[in-house]
Amino acid sequence: LAEVVEEGLQIDYNQEHPRVQQQIARFESDNITIFSHLDEEGVIMLKYILAELNRRGMPAELAFIPLVESSYRPDASNRGHHVGLWQLGGPTARVFGVEVGQQIDGRYNIKASTDAALTYLEYLNKMFDGDWLLTMAAYNAGEGRVLGSIKRNQQADKKADYWSLSLPNVTQEYIPKVLALSQ
Is 122 a catalytic residue? Predict the structure, then answer.
């Protein structure tokens, strides 16, 4: 499994960035057991997602988004607003082909939610000119928030890369978590 992940890593970033190193140290500490709950079912889901990412030519790092979002629990729910493995919101899920209604919620379906999440990530990646860090930031915080932060930085003659943007704290921790887990 480690070889499959390593072969699929594509995101170019500074692995020594302090925020990534902070998350690596946090995950390596004795009291953090983020991988401990990955039972046989979780490993099967991880392998499935890695295969889908490979099939689409997408970075293997994205397979760690569900680990951060839901701890690889397809039944995860954030008070019904964000649901499933990928923690998709209802409107986003519907736009990307997942049925969400009173009787059925396809966000709990691993195949349907993975297809929708990966299609959404592809859409965001085109929007952000192939920048996977901005893509993941938009997946977490919303594309409008990321676009607004980019615009503010550009107007102030500041860098407009992910590391330079003013984003919510949860988003500032989100990407370093995903990158640290992929390492």
Answer: no
